[in-house]
Specification:
- The structure is a single chain.
- By secondary structure, the protein is an all-alpha fold.
- 88% of the residues lie in helices and 0% in strands.
- The chain has one domain.
- The chain is built from ten helices and no strands.
- Helix 3 runs parallel beside helix 7.
- The longest helix is centred in the middle third of the chain and has 40 residues.
Length: 261
């Protein structure tokens, strides 16, 4: 009877210990990436190649999503502001919403879903097919050759993708507010220029996207490197990457917003 009552407690303790162990392993993994980044950056063409796969190939989903998010913001913003006679502030509403919150967060979620999952699957498959072990046998450090270029590619790509998302979102808001609804063109842009501050809005948004890029890419490469070398293990690691990245992005967004704004 006592064992039956204690079983859930044991299971909870096991999960807690495993979570702490994985957090410590991930921290050591990050230190290893930074330690061997010099070897990776010395062959910068590896990082450039990964920037293409992580960043350039993610442009379509970023551009299309940013455009439609901006258009939805324009429609909803106009509907709300017009009730209070403030429809002219639509440009400021769209820009501030995107630059401060929606741009970095949604771009990071899309990046995790598209590029992060691909990184995990690729590294996990290399582990399952013993390619990483073969590199160790040939005295090639797999962290310097495989992991570090993908990590820095994600860190470089994320702020750029977030900026493109913001630009397309503002353009989408312009299409709805000025082209479709008929707001004054000059008022739309002047209200936006007066409301947006370079440091508190633009720079802080870029800092958010940079932090999200580090977190998402670290989770992606860690899950791939730590994946069980089976088809089910790689599949589970890919799923964990997307889910964990989404939760970490939202948690970091709250923390960063509390400090910045």
């Amino acid at each position: 009877m006592l064992d039956t009552l204690l079983a859930p407690l044991r299971h909870l303790g096991h999960l807690s210990v495993n979570a702490v162990w994985r957090l410590g392993f991930a921290s050591r993994f990050l230190l290893a990436i930074l330690r061997f980044s010099g070897q990776s950056l010395a062959r910068f063409q590896l990082t450039i190649r990964e920037v293409y796969f992580a960043g350039v190939l993610s442009l379509i989903i970023i551009v299309v999503s940013g455009l439609f998010v901006g258009m939805v913001l324009g429609l909803q913003g106009y509907n709300t502001l017009s009730r209070f006679g403030s429809a002219d502030a639509l440009g400021a509403l769209v820009a501030l919403s995107l630059l401060r919150e929606l741009g970095p967060v949604l771009a990071a979620l899309l990046f995790a879903s598209r590029a992060g999952s691909a990184m995990t699957a690729e590294i996990g498959l290399m582990k399952a097919t013993e390619q990483l072990e073969a590199m160790n046998v040939m005295a090639v450090n797999p962290i310097a050759r495989v992991v570090a270029p993908r990590f820095w590619a994600g860190v470089i790509s994320m702020p750029v993708l977030a900026a493109i998302f913001n630009v397309m979102g503002i353009f989408g808001g312009y299409l709805v507010g000025v082209v479709m609804i008929g707001l004054d063109d000059g008022t739309f842009w002047s209200q936006m220029q007066n409301a947006v501050d370079l440091h508190s809005d633009v720079v802080n948004g870029l800092i958010k996207s940079l932090v999200f890029g580090v977190a998402v890419t670290l989770i992606a490469v860690f899950e791939g490197y730590d994946a069980t070398p089976t088809a089910a293990g790689v599949s589970g690691a890919t799923t964990r990457t997307v889910v964990t990245s989404a939760l970490v992005i939202l948690a970091l967004d709250f923390v960063l917003t509390a400090f910045m704004f």
